[in-house]
Amino acid sequence: MKKTTLFFLVFVAHIYFSNAQWVQCGLSDKNVTTLTAYGSNIYAGTNDGLVYISSDSGKIWTSISNGIPAAANISSILVYGNYLFVGTNGDGVYLSTNKGTSWIAVNTGLTNNKIFTLDNYYSAIYAGTFEGGVFFTTNYGASWTALNNGLTTDYNKWISKIKINGKKIFAGCFRGLFSSTDYGTTWTATTFKDDQINGISKYGSNLYLGASTGAYISTDNGISWTLKYKYAVGDIIAYDKKIVMESNNDKYQNGVYMSTNDGDSWSIVNEGLPLEYTTVSIGHFAALGNYLYATTAHKTKKGVYLLKPENILGAVSTSTSTSTTTSSSTSAKYTYELDKFESSYGLSTYYYKVYNNGIYYDKFKVYYTTQPDYINSSEPAFYSCPVIGGIDCVNNEYFSSSTYTGGYTKKYPSIDALITAWAKAYFKAIYGN
Question: What superfamily in CATH does domain 22-311 come from?
Answer without folding.
Answer: YVTN repeat-like/Quinoprotein amine dehydrogenase (2.130.10.10)
